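Pilot study result, target chain (118 residues):
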Amino acid sequence: MCAICRASATLTNSLQNNFSDVQNFFQGSALNGFANSLDQQLTSFTSPSDGAFTVDLKSISTEYSALQDDINNFETNIIAPLRTRLQASFSKAEIALQQLPNLIKNLNTELGINDSSN
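Predicted structure:
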C-alpha cells in the first residue's frame, strides 16, 4: 500500500473513530492546538508591520532605491560628462578628417607635386 494511501486510510479511520482527538489536535483544549500554532507562525511571517516577509520587502525596496540612486548618480556624474567629452573629440576628429584632402592638396602644391592623375 502506498504511503499516501496509508495516510488517507489513517486519517479516515481517525475521523470516523476518534473525531474528538482529531478536533483536539487542531483546536487544542484552550485554542492552543496545531491550527492556532500554525496561525501564530504564519502571522510572524506575514504581519504587515513587523512580519519577516514585510521586513524583507522593505529591505529589498530600500536596497532597490539605493541602487537606483547609484545608477542615476553614475549616469549624471560619470557617463554624461564622458559622453560629452567623447562627442567633442569625435567632432574634432571628424573636422580634421574633412580638412585632410585640402591639406594634402596644399602640401602637394607647395612641394610641386602634380596630383591631377590621382
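One observation from the pilot: The radius of gyration is 40 Å. A full batch analysis is planned for the follow-on phase.
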